[in-house]
Protein: Peroxidase
Amino acid sequence: MFSTNNTYYYSLVATILLVLTFVFPSEGQLSASFYSSTCSNVSSIVRDSVQQALTSDSRIAASLIRLHFHDCFVDGCDGSILLDVGGNITESEKNAAPNENSVRGFDVVDSIKSTIEASCPAVVSCADILALAAEASVSLSQGPSWTVLLGRRDSVTANQGGANTSLPSPFENLTNVSSKFSAVGLDTTDLVALSGAHTFGRSQCQFFSQRLLNFNGTGSPDPTLNTTYLGTLQQNCPQNGNGATLNNLDPSTPDTFDNKYFTNLLINQGLLQTDQELFSTDGSSTISIVNNFANNQSAFFEAFAQSMINMGNISPLTGTQGQIRTDCKKVNGS
Structure:
């Protein structure tokens, strides 16, 4: 047993460490009040900008949340997806296979950044703008709202190779997609909940046409596709047609954030292979979660909000790491 003196010593050390924890918060700690004294109107600036963008582009809400997702899955939520080639950036994540001619909304982010810079120069990171824009996009589309944790800083590097390998592909099976979520610390509930973002937005024919005629080399369509829905998709995406033709991810309420994505899965109307596999993979633990969200929109909204917070916590740069980019497209000084 410890002597009285040793016990006192260890108690004193523990007390000092506890005090230091509060005085010097650990790296990676985000806060809802991070900009309260430096840019208190940042949330309203972002929300107003997203609302304005929605008046001319009904797709922009889904596009902005996708930007945040594609940012966070590559080296964490650091704004690296926004960087163009230039200076020390020799390869942009924008040009990675999952992003090129697919991700969009960069002009809206640039507009938001310009407005914020005019009000609070060199204070708000581009990474935080993506997180705030994602929340605004969902809540303005009749979805849930949540308290966005802030304090991320911006990367001074990009990782095109990481974007090519870390982002889930619409052609992958559930096992592979689950592994990619697990690799960034997200669990099965996060996977199903975040997939629910496909309750609004569009997808190009090229990302699901393999399901329509010759699925996995069988010479037949994907058997998990509703036959009526299959006919509609074959009309929209004929063989040798334009692979960039857009289709609603949710054919019932394409611009509203609701739980229709999950009710669509129950009747085999998931557009992407990765969507339908959440419900049609025999024995998968995702099936019960899909059923729950299909039958209980409140449960989906609650889980989605928490999963967005979880995703926003993936390896953020904080403290003195990275920088606050004044132009989201390039590293300061380049």
